[in-house]
Design goal:
The structure holds two protein chains of two kinds. By secondary structure, chain A is of the alpha+beta class. Chain A has seven helices and ten strands. Helices cover 65% and strands 10% of the residues of chain B. Classes of the chains: A alpha+beta, B mainly alpha.
């Protein structure tokens, strides 16, 4: 008998219900809030990734950047998506120079003796002069150049489409690899590009700006214009080009920036 | 009649009768409290990004009233030189912000709770009356359900702003792949301005929201954690019936109902 009585639940009074529900909800709230705070502290204080091809970012954030890259490449990237182009009249006369890493004025550099080097398999190096490149079909683009810092400027460039360049020099097998790496002649600045972005129809090896040969501070004699990437990937003064199935080294990816940096 | 008869035999005690009034569903509370820290992190990391090109100011007829942001503000919050870190945080928490927002919109739509939230035909007129009442200019506030007209507008606007932040955000994040969103936002340059302006909107909302929450008092605040509010039903007499309860239980309820009608 006694046992049965115990089992019968008394209905709670309103007061009891109030305090009971308050207790449950406020306790859960406090526990969840503490958990969220601890989670944030863990993330905020998480150590940087082990320095390699990428460096300088919190390890978990780097993982997130890489996963996010894969997601957006899968759902969004298409070489049919073209960057918007503008009439020539809208192109800036004074093109912003934001960085001189690898093209510093004090460094000795003679554009006349420059040759583009393409590293092929087995140590073979293709040497190409500017005149040879200028003999290839010329492609112009006037588009809104976008800097990772947040500014943008409509500018006018011309040169050889990277995909035309690949075809002309019969590098098609190399273009089947996953990445292209480019470096300045002094190796101070370097970028790594995923092949689909490099082969995008608006990616240029540019030698002209505003209908004139490139000024030195804008990357003479040959620079990369890759409108599907932030400015940090638009290497000035290309010295060598490599192909690889693993990510080539990238200057800003070593400083905590997203490797992909695609637009 | 019946009620009167009963009252003769019972003791009427006119004490405030506490009752639980359900107010916020669990999903609602979850979304609210998950959004709060996420939005804070998004605004903070957004400022780390904005700093790299802090070109916005309030300038009217050539006179700059305010520059976003003054140096003391940047330095106090330790914002300078953290662009890459800001981007890494921003592009992780954007997922949580968006998913929480999608969940909220789906929930309010499917549950029908949107009916309490969406502005009605007369809401815009009523919101003005609510404002006058809140400012102690008008004595009475228009009748309301869960939310008053001003709240309906504010809580719907904030959701539209959230959608706006995601769209303008995607428009500047992937302006080539989501070119149609960039077009929709009036171009890359303008999309960044909108994205920034919406953030100012959140800060403005937050300030008003906090003031209103403080003015509304503890019970209102507590309900966003517990889900219910305690209301006093002191207009109805609590009736202590003679024993045994079981037999007189039914008539007592009737009596209460009759009292209510009489009022």
């Amino acid at each position: 008998m006694k046992k049965q009585n115990k089992k019968i639940k008394k209905e709670l009074t309103v007061e009891q219900k109030i305090s009971r529900r308050n207790f449950i909800s406020f306790t859960s709230f406090a526990v969840l809030a503490a958990g969220a705070f601890e989670g944030w502290r863990w993330l905020y204080k998480s150590p940087n990734e082990v320095a390699g091809i990428t460096a300088g970012a919190h390890a978990p954030l780097r993982r997130a950047l890489n996963k996010t890259e894969i997601f957006f490449r899968r759902i969004a990237f298409s070489e049919n998506h073209l960057v918007k182009t503008y009439p020539k009249s809208m192109a800036a006369k004074h093109v912003r120079v934001n960085s001189d890493i690898g093209v510093e004025a004090k460094k000795k550099f003679d554009p006349a003796t420059w040759k583009l080097q393409v590293n092929k398999k087995g140590g073979e190096v293709l040497q190409i002069s500017l005149q040879e490149l200028m003999a290839l079909p010329k492609t112009e683009i006037i588009y809104d150049f976008k800097c990772v810092e947040g500014w943008d400027q409509i500018s006018h460039w011309a040169g050889v489409k990277f995909s035309d360049f690949i075809k002309h020099y019969q590098l098609d097998d190399y273009a089947k690899m996953q990445y292209v790496g480019m470096e300045t002649p002094d190796k101070a600045y370097y970028v790594g590009l995923d092949m689909p972005s490099a082969m995008h129809p608006q990616t240029l090896l540019a030698y002209e700006m505003n209908d004139k040969l490139l000024p030195l501070q804008n990357g003479a004699p040959l620079r990369l214009i890759i409108p599907v990437k932030y400015g940090i990937k638009n290497l000035k003064r290309i010295g060598t080009i490599n192909f690889s199935n693993i990510r080539p080294k990238d200057y800003w990816a070593e400083q905590g920036y997203d490797y992909y940096s695609g637009l | 009649m019946y009620g009167l008869q009963l009252k003769d035999r019972c003791i009427n005690i006119f004490v405030p009768m506490k009752a639980i009034k359900e107010k916020h569903s669990l999903a609602m509370r979850w979304c609210h409290w998950v959004n709060f820290p996420i939005l804070t992190i998004m605004i903070w990391s957004g400022m780390l990004i904005y700093w790299a090109n802090d070109e916005y100011s309030i300038t009217i007829f050539g006179h700059t009233f305010f520059r976003f942001f003054p140096d003391w503000f940047y330095n106090t919050l330790k914002i300078p030189f953290r662009l890459s870190e800001g981007m890494a945080f921003h592009f992780l928490f954007m997922w949580f912000f968006t998913l929480n927002g999608i969940f909220y919109i789906l929930y309010t739509t499917i549950s029908g709770e949107w009916r309490e939230l969406a502005p009605k035909k007369n809401s815009f007129k009523e919101a003005w009356q609510v404002l006058l009442h809140d400012l102690h200019i008008r004595k009475t506030a228009p009748p309301q359900n869960k939310y008053n007209a001003a709240q309906r507008i504010a809580y719907t606007a904030i959701i539209i702003m959230g959608i706006g932040s995601v769209i303008t955000g995607l428009a500047i994040y992937k302006p080539v792949q989501f070119y149609y969103l960039t077009w929709l936002c009036g171009g890359y340059h303008f999309a960044r301005i909108l994205h920034f302006a919406l953030t100012l909107g959140y800060v403005f909302f937050f300030v008003i929201h906090i003031v209103q929450v403080i003015l509304a008092g503890w019970g209102n605040f507590s309900s966003v954690i517990s889900g219910f509010e305690v209301v006093n039903e002191n207009l109805h007499p609590a009736i202590e019936a003679p024993q045994p309860v079981a037999e007189t239980h039914q008539p007592i309820i009737n009596a209460e109902n009759e009292d209510e009608k009489a009022e």
